[in-house]
């Protein structure tokens, strides 16, 4: 392949019962070293590598939250500082570049300067507490396509 796009869930080690037997924590040294190693291995087959940063964490099951706050959608929209692990994103970006890949911080696709809305226009962003709705994914397709084009064009 000319381009490999890497995305992953970053909920490991965060508690809340979502561990599923993992023995590591997202953004820890083992995570970052493994990301660098993966990017190097993929570059070794001749592919360019684009690692997509995380989607913001709403910290709630969004449809359930919305059903409880029909008159105040903002009650379900986390603050940007709560939903985005900026230090983790910076560390992943460094690890990706160390392996020869490119990193895309996707925060701007989801958040304003202060909040990460759970409804944009008439489209719900989250299907649950971690997955995007099909409709929002389709609306983001051109932006992700542009990230892929940029990765292919990058040296």
Structure, described:
A three-stranded parallel beta sheet has the order 1-2-3, sandwiched between helices. It is 39% helix and 10% strand. The longest helix has 20 residues. The protein starts with a strand and ends with a helix.
Biggest sheet descriptor: 3 strands, parallel
Distance between the termini: 16 Å
In quaternary terms, these chains amount to: single chain
Mean pLDDT: 92
Order of strands across the main sheet = 1-2-3
Radius of gyration: 16 Å
Helix content: 25-40%
Give the gist of this structure.
With 155 residues, the chain is an alpha/beta fold. 39% of the residues lie in helices and 10% in strands. The mean pLDDT is 92.
Notable features of this structure?
155 residues; alpha/beta; two-stranded antiparallel sheet; three-stranded parallel sheet; 5 strands; 5 helices
Compile the SSE list and pairings.
Layout: E1 3-6, H1 29-44, E2 48-52, H2 62-68, H3 80-83, H4 86-98, E3 102-104, E4 119-120, E5 123-124, H5 134-153
Parallel strand pairs: 1-2, 2-3
Antiparallel strand pairs: 4-5
Helix pairs in contact: 1-4
């Amino acid at each position: 392949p000319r381009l490999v796009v890497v995305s992953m869930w970053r909920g490991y080690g965060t508690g809340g019962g979502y561990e599923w037997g993992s023995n590591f924590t997202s953004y820890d040294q083992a995570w970052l070293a493994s990301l660098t190693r993966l990017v190097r291995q993929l570059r070794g087959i001749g592919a360019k590598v684009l690692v997509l940063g995380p989607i913001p964490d709403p910290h709630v099951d969004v449809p359930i939250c919305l059903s409880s706050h029909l008159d105040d959608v903002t009650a379900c929209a986390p603050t940007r500082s709560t939903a985005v692990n900026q230090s983790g994103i910076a560390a992943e970006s460094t690890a990706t570049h160390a392996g020869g890949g490119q990193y895309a911080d996707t925060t701007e696709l989801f958040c304003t300067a202060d909040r990460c809305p759970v409804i944009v226009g008439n489209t719900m962003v989250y299907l649950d507490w971690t997955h995007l709705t099909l409709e929002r994914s389709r609306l983001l397709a051109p932006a992700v396509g542009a990230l892929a084009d940029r990765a292919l064009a990058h040296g």
